Amino acid sequence: MSEPVNPFRPTAGAEPPLLVGRAGLLDEFVYGLQIRTGAPGLLTIFTGARGVGKTVMLGEAEDEARRAGWAVISETATRGFLGRIGHMMQPLVEELGNGPPKRKITGLGVAGFSIDTELPPDQQTGWRQLGEELLRLLDAHGTGLAITLDEIHGADRDELAQLAASVQHFIRAGLPVALVFAGLPAAVSDLLDEGVATFLRRADRIDLHVAAIDEVEASYAEVFAAVPGIVSSDLLRMAAEATGGYPFLIQLVGYHLWQVAETAQEPLETQHVQLAVSAARRRNTRMVIGAALAAATPKDMAFLSAMARDNGPSRTADIGYRLDNARNTIGNYRARLIDAGLIESAGHGLVEFAIPGLREHLRS
Ligand SMILES: Nc1ncnc2c1ncn2[C@@H]1O[C@H](COP(=O)(O)OP(=O)(O)OP(=O)(O)O)[C@@H](O)[C@H]1O
Ligand SMILES: [Mg+2]
């Protein structure tokens, strides 16, 4: 028998061997797929810090939709996403309607929808007609269309407003459409506040957090059962604790531990786990922390560094004192950093880092 290959997936958006700590989160969405139109779960927004598993949840939603027989269009909200969605709707209409669209679609030249800007008015009309035709065809089959849109923090506001307006129109017409978004908490709060798409306020907002250590441990026990006798339950516990329940670290620690186990080929010792954990942390720092801090301003950095002096949650009052700043300025930075997914509220007057390893990184 060949050796089982490393099942962990420490890569952005990759489906993990086991989805830890997400039980029940898609129940409303799945329920909505049965109702097919107008159900609250059909409009869902996942938010959360980097690496917490937003893209993976979109993938899960897509799987559920396909399982229910729905058509799925999966996009990332970089400029031109609306046109790209339109391009993906076209072949679906042709396939389901046994040929080119029955009605003439407005504004569609040879090139079809523009995919590097928001849509000009005639293409917007065409997009809506095409969408409506597709949804009617799917409706006749007793299914619908699920659109997932990742990274909405990068979305062009006008484009997003266009998408929202059309989807709202479909919903009002009783058509079977689902829209699942994912983005950093900042983007979503802003979008909802700016009124880019008021109807999005009615979406189910699901904020993703770290998983419980016990659940991480249980998942490791299940996955490492494929190589019995190599990693003791004490060491699995130790590895689970080192992840802090953070999904990206669950994959990284699992991956490196598996690698160490492959090389060792005998029951592991404490130092093997330590080796795997430090390799995982180094990679996490490079990949997640680097990306998360890329957009931070010098003042953001000063706030974060002031926090890093504490060993646990920081009191905002202390940070103000350390930075010699007025309370309202501190309040503004606190809100900005929470929105950026870098820190989290930890109770009244307290904040803590939302990304594991960030404190250590700032200290070094
Ligand atoms: N519930 C989970 N259990 C175990 N591992 C998970 C879970 N969710 C995500 N992961 C893993 O965590 C990593 C990051 O997941 P994902 O790319 O979905 O995060 P994200 O929130 O979209 O990150 P970003 O903000 O950088 O886009 C991946 O390696 C993925 O396999
Ligand atoms: Mg993602």
Labels describing this entry:
alpha/beta, Arc Repressor Mutant, subunit A, single chain, 364 residues, Rossmann fold
Short description:
The chain is built from 14 helices and 8 strands. The chain has 364 residues and is an alpha/beta fold.
Secondary structure elements and pairings:
Layout: H1 27-35, E1 43-47, H2 54-67, E2 71-76, H3 81-96, H4 121-140, E3 145-150, H5 157-172, E4 177-183, H6 185-194, E5 204-207, H7 213-224, H8 233-243, H9 247-264, H10 270-293, H11 298-307, E6 314-315, H12 316-323, H13 327-339, E7 343-345, E8 350-353, H14 358-363
Helix pairs in contact: 3-4, 7-8, 8-9, 8-10, 9-10, 12-13
Structure description:
This protein is an alpha/beta fold. The chain folds into 3 domains: 27-207, Rossmann fold, CATH 3.40.50; 213-292; 296-363, Winged helix-like DNA-binding domain superfamily/Winged helix DNA-binding domain (Arc Repressor Mutant, subunit A, Orthogonal Bundle), CATH 1.10.10. It contains 14 helices and 8 strands. It has helices at 27-35, 54-67, 81-96, 121-140, 157-172, 185-194, 213-224, 233-243, 247-264, 270-293, 298-307, 316-323, 327-339, 358-363, and strands at residues 43-47, 71-76, 145-150, 177-183, 204-207, 314-315, 343-345, 350-353. Strands 2-3-4-1-5 form a 5-stranded parallel sheet, with helices on both faces. Strands 6-8-7 form a 3-stranded antiparallel sheet. Helix 8 (233-243) runs antiparallel to helix 9 and helix 12 crosses helix 13. It is globular and about 70 Å long. The two termini are 46 Å apart. The mean pLDDT is 91. Bound molecules: adenosine-5'-triphosphate and magnesium ion. The site of adenosine-5'-triphosphate has 23 residues, from helix 2 and helix 9. Residues 12-13, 54-55, 150 line the site of magnesium ion.
